[in-house]
Amino acid sequence: MDLPSAPCPAWLITRLKAFGGSVSFHQYMDWVLNDPDQGAYATGKLRIGVDGDFVTSPSLGGDFAQLLAVQLADWFDQLEQRNHSDQRLTLVEAGPGEGQLAIDLITALESLCPDLLPKLDLVLVEPNQGMAERQRERLALLKPSVSIHWRSFADLAAAPVVGVLLAHEVLDALPVERLVWRHNALHRQGVGFEMVNSEPYLRFIELPIPEQLKLSIEKANRSLGITIPPPNVPDGWCSEWHQDLEPWLKQAASALQMGPMLVIDYALEARRYFNAARGDGTLMAYRQQMASSALLESPGCCDLTAHLCLETLQYQAEQQGWNCLGEVRQGQALLALGLAEQLYGLQKLPPTQLSDAFQRREALLRLVDPAGLGEFRWLAFEIKPISSNHAEQPKLHCKFLEEPVR
Ligand SMILES: C[S@@+](CC[C@H](N)C(=O)[O-])C[C@H]1O[C@@H](n2cnc3c(N)ncnc32)[C@H](O)[C@@H]1O
Fold this sequence. Notes:
Blueprint: E1 6-7, H1 10-18, E2 22-24, H2 25-34, H3 63-83, E3 89-94, H4 100-112, E4 120-125, H5 129-139, E5 147-150, H6 153-158, E6 161-168, E7 177-182, E8 185-196, E9 199-207, H7 211-224, E10 238-241, H8 245-253, E11 256-258, E12 260-265, E13 267-268, H9 270-273, E14 284-287, E15 290-292, E16 303-305, E17 308-309, H10 310-319, E18 322-329, H11 330-336, H12 339-346, H13 354-368, E19 377-383, H14 388-391
Parallel strand pairs: 3-4, 3-6, 4-5, 6-11, 6-12, 13-17
Antiparallel strand pairs: 1-9, 2-8, 7-8, 7-10, 8-9, 12-19, 14-15, 14-16, 18-19
Helix pairs in contact: 3-4, 8-10
S-adenosylmethionine binds next to loops.
């Protein structure tokens, strides 16, 4: 057992006691992010942006959305050509955070392809009420130009749409299992508490791995040719397992009749993810622009986020009804969508807009910085055709996967 690590708030003591004194890390992460009364997202405590707890690409300014809109416009165009009908098109955004990306995308699409807007619906999938409330406030500004709805994946499954599903930095917020190699065996990490000087402290504990978790790891090991843990890991080696990814991908697949899904997130190849040298996994806590590996600090007040494993995501997506269209790093994707031209265009702004130009230049460079957001992965998937006519159709083309024009 590890040493006690962080004070445990009263609400969590009550929860842990109700569960026999300890829970899996997965359950802990779900509580501290998504519990309706205490979770950092569910209560809306977390704020995204330069003045908030952490930044994401869309929170750095509208240029990210302007470039992404080039890809979305092209996909909507391909879907319209395929459809040969007046069927409405939908942009589904899962996990919209502050709602800024949705606003900026609609604004960008409005100038890029004004004819699309009257046919377009915006659907936001946000399970956390605290976040949904802030999205409603911010998106109220957009009401006239496009119809906006908040829906669950279950609602969408009842009436699947033709359109594009966007998941920007959402899958990294799904609760994960943590696996620990201890005394030559793999364990499930758990969280418990103990009293130190009459004060409750949280601590990591190790639990046996339940059969279902073992089976899902073994299945991926066999199918992907990976080994978890990899050979020669030291005692205490730890990594993450996205137990909720497959059900999420299944729900997402049931939302679309036809169309692509774009996942943009932190991700690593399996050989880098499940690596003997990566002994603490990828999980990080974020609060007030500080990144920390103290995962049990301030429960319910921090973001917790884990990288995705590229091959596992692609494999599970294929299993759940998606065809993989390809993936690249964000830097390359944005260059293919016109980032260099966007940068060049800033030079033409009048001197009165100099400070704005500098700010946008800074943000654009941050988006492609190989040591930062440029390392994000863009992964495109397309829903597998159900009917035999659709099987004849060529795959959707992805502009962002093209070589950038020189
Ligand atoms: C890291 S934030 C990203 C916000 C936004 N996409 C951005 O990039 O600025 C994660 C968002 O996903 C939401 N979320 C968490 N679990 C989710 C799930 N299972 N399905 C959809 N959204 C989820 C959170 O409430 C939050 O709005």
